[in-house]
Write a structure and sequence with these properties.
The protein is α+β, with helices and mostly antiparallel strands and about 375 residues long. It folds into two domains: about 5-85 and about 110-190 and about 280-350, FAD/NAD(P)-binding domain (3-Layer(bba) Sandwich), CATH 3.50.50; about 190-275, D-Amino Acid Oxidase, Chain A, domain 2, CATH 3.30.9. It is about 35% helix and about 25% strand. It is built from twelve helices and 21 strands. The protein has helices at about 5, 25-35, 65-70, 75-80, 115-130, 175-180, 235-240, 245-255, 260-265, 310-330, 335-360, 365-375, and strands at about 15-20, 45, 60, 85, 85-90, 100, 110, 130-135, 140-145, 155, 160-170, 185-190, 190-200, 210-215, 215-225, 225-235, 270-275, 280-285, 285-290, 290-295, 300. The strands form four sheets. Strands 1, 2, 8, 9, 10, 11, 19 and 20 form an eight-stranded mixed beta sheet that branches. A seven-stranded mixed beta sheet has the order 6-5-14-15-16-13-17. It has a three-stranded antiparallel beta sheet with strand order 3-7-4, with no helix packed on it. α11 crosses α12. It is globular and about 60 Å long. The protein starts with a helix and ends with a helix. The protein binds flavin-adenine dinucleotide (FAD).
Length: about 375
Amino acid sequence: MQCDSLKRRIFSLNTCDVVILGGGPAGCATALSLRSHFPSLNLVLLEVSAYDKPRVGEVLPAIARPLLTHLGIWEGFEAEQFRAVHSQSAAWGQPSLIENHFLYSARGAGWHLARTRFDQFLVEQVAQRGVEVRLQTRLVSITQPNSTPNQLWHLHLCDHTQLQTCFIVDATGRRATFARQMGGRLLVFDHLTAFVHFFTITNNPSPGTVIEAFRDGWWYTALLENCRVVACLTDSDIARKLGLKDRDRWLALLQQTSWIQAIVKDGVPQGEVLVRPANSTRLDQVYGDHWLAVGDAASAYDPLSSQGITKALRLGIFAGYAIGDQLSKGDTAGLSKYASLVQREFEYYRQAHMQYSTQEQRWSQSQFWRRRHERFQA
Ligand SMILES: Cc1cc2nc3c(=O)[nH]c(=O)nc-3n(C[C@H](O)[C@H](O)[C@H](O)COP(=O)(O)OP(=O)(O)OC[C@H]3O[C@@H](n4cnc5c(N)ncnc54)[C@H](O)[C@@H]3O)c2cc1C
């Protein structure tokens, strides 16, 4: 189903049980989880975009399969025929490229996702299960007229309509737009930023992901359906000095890589450099009175981990249980368990991330690596 046919599914519903802000993996997983475990709840998903701009975040590890199965969308996912990826190679901590073949992994191959198509697939699954999906819809303002228990939220939308709801899910991604409005504080652990280019493909090299560290950060490339994505990741202040927003300077830096430039040497870069935040963040408070944050809005990881999408799906599943318990039984225990899960997973991630960063010692005096090594020693 394309965006136009999604738009036609709008019913004239003014009151609902749950409004989900954001139709990325986290928002869609929350909607699917609520739909299958609490089918009597009315859900509305608001998505600000029409899924018409390029999105990044392509590597889906094999561990996603049980999550997609749990959400009831594995067969649909298989039918989409995303590109299977059988290996990952990294020049990390040493100059040669070391290949890790998933043949030897119990879970098997992962996938390279054309991200916009994957997110569209998810939201179509949500709409097909009877959730009202409104695309290109922005929240203008929100009020909670009285602070008495079970008081409805009043949402004023950009199309001049209003919605009333018992519960709001913030699945707006790293910006955590709603949670921050509710007083949630974003804890920021670094300022990693991705500078991304898509390249045309002229040949069909091995589809595995390739990662290469350099003095000021690291690069990655992945093969998508009709192009290759290439990203340079560094801290925002270092990026300013390197002039990475400028296409020519980005291309000049690419030429200094050993492996990445060789892979894309015959490709042609398309359009301008896309700039995306890629830093590690966590909300100090992931739920409050009849609201909850999920996915990157709750906690965001360095793309090096390739865990962002599976984390979004997993947290969406747990969020569905916790919200359903509060709305159907008045039981809030699930919400506090959910908050502990987000915090515990973030701590594991931070430990693993710091250990991985210390494996790269070739430029330990450079600002980028020094920052990461010092944090590990602290
Ligand atoms: C360069 C880069 C590479 C990455 N690579 C990988 C990877 O290889 N593997 C991996 O697993 N993860 C990767 N990630 C991380 C991954 O993309 C995210 O963790 C994942 O997309 C989080 O899903 P989400 O649904 O929480 O947020 P998002 O995917 O950001 O979705 C948020 C949605 O909310 C919408 N929205 C925003 N504001 C509003 C609003 N006010 N109202 C309504 N809708 C709104 C947005 O349009 C969007 O659809 C990468 C990230 C970056 C930056």
